[in-house]
Amino acid sequence: MSPLESFPGLHAWLETPLGRHVMDWEAACLDRMVVDVFGYNAVQLGIPECDFLRANRMPLRLRAGAGQVQVETDYAALPFESQSLDLVVLAHVLEFAHHPHHVLREVERVLGPEGQLIITGFNPVSLFGLRRRLKGESGSYPWHGQYLSTRRIKDWLELLSFEPGHQSAGCFIPAQTEAEWLQRLRFVERAGERWCGFAGGVYVLQAVKRVQGMRLIMPKWDRLARARALAPLVSRVGRQPDPQKTMDEQDFGRN
To answer: What residues are paired with 117 via a beta bridge?
Structure first.
């Protein structure tokens, strides 16, 4: 792993026709998803070699993590204040993290209410997932990762009060590295998008952080008690004192 690599073997894979094909599809998809996300602070975690925030218009856009980044950090211990970010792009981080649910919990902490999270990942239910099983954990990037299904990620997101939203899948072609074969198999992409949307080699999943508001419901007995406590005050304010009765009460006190 070179000092500027965010994951071992990433640079070599990005130079292959398959790596460029996957990153081109994800970049086009993310451009459409982030362009209308508004706020002040956006952070990209993972794959800093590709700028997935280029279409966003927030004043502060950072790439954090390892490699060619502005902020070096551990994904499970982000150096940002709680509820300080409006958009987080998590690019192929979860399948290579030792504790992916810890990463999601940390992202939930730094995102503000109604903040958006966009996750990219490799799909285990795909031809990419099949090649990963054949290669095993001894394979090079990206075949050694622990691929996570969208269903599993959605379960984690819902536990963290995220509301899953738009989802896209792409790269239905076999995991071939030869440019000639990728060109010949273009028809598989069109067929997969139409008939097998769940079997794309990679997916992009968007979610919104929801924060439920609290409403204090007072018991009826408390409202009745307050009404009874105010009743004597209201009667005293609304009734003028009798001067003669007041003088008689003072004379009675002297006697």
So the answer is: 88, 207
Q: Please choose, from the candidates 52, 18, 11, the residue with its C-alpha nearest in 3D space to the C-alpha of residue 172.
A: 18
10-209 has which fold?
Rossmann fold (3.40.50)
Residues in the chain: 255
Do β-strands 60-65 and 71-72 pair in parallel, antiparallel, or remain unpaired? parallel
Lowest mean pLDDT among 10-14, 118-122, 197-201, 227-231: 227-231
* 3-state DSSP of the chain: CCCCCCCCCHHHHHCCHHHHHHHHHHHHHHHHHHCCCCCCEEEEECCCCCCCCCCCCCCEEEEEECCCCCEECECCECCCCCCCEEEEEEECCHHHCCCHHHHHHHHHHHEEEEEEEEEEEECCCCHHHHHHHHHCCCCCCCCCCCCCCHHHHHHHHHHCCEEEEEEEEECCCCCCCCHHHHHHCHHHHHHHHHHCHHHCCEEEEEEEECCCCCCCCCCHHHHHHHHHHHHHHHHHHHCCCCHHHHHHHHHHHHC
CA distance 40 to 60: 6
Give the domain ranges of the chain. 10-209, 220-254
Mean pLDDT over 149-175 rounds to 92
What is d(CA 26, CA 144) in angstroms, rounded to the nearest whole number? 20
The whole-number average pLDDT for the span 140-154 is: 91
Residue linked to tokens 């070599």: 12
Using alpha carbons, list the distances in angstroms from residue 41 to 57, 135, 137, 162, 210.
Answer: 10, 39, 36, 19, 18
